[in-house]
Design brief:
The protein has 113 residues and is mainly beta. It has no helices and 11 strands.
Length: 113
């Protein structure tokens, strides 16, 4: 059974940092691109970042470039999203995703101004 379990969300002041984790199981982790999406209240889910299976390539949406860093630990089957200089507009539920169609349950990130 494929499982993606996010953690690390919370409440932080603007300018602060959080590190999200996505612990994966039930599939060959090394073979998959892993992505982070987010959904703010009243908005559509949007792609934030993703990382290739070999960690050779990463993608960031423009609004987080220079502030967020995605990484993966294939030995631990975990993907991380380091979020620095957080802004109130980063407030959302953050989801982990693999292209075969599986989503985690999400973790709430709230940034106060």
């Amino acid at each position: 059974e494929v499982q993606l379990v996010e953690s690390g969300g919370g409440l932080v002041q603007a300018g602060g940092s959080l590190r999200l984790s996505c612990a994966a199981s039930g599939f060959t982790f090394d073979d998959y691109v892993i992505g982070w999406f987010r959904q703010a209240p009243g908005k559509e889910r949007e792609g934030v970042s993703c990382i290739s299976s070999s960690e050779g390539g990463t993608y960031y949406t423009d609004s987080v470039k220079g502030r967020f860093t995605i990484s993966r630990d294939n030995a631990e089957n975990t993907v991380y999203l380091q979020m620095n200089n957080l802004k109130p507009e980063d407030t959302a539920v953050y989801y982990c995703y693999i292209p075969s169609g599986y989503w985690g349950q999400g973790t709430q990130v709230t940034v106060s101004s």
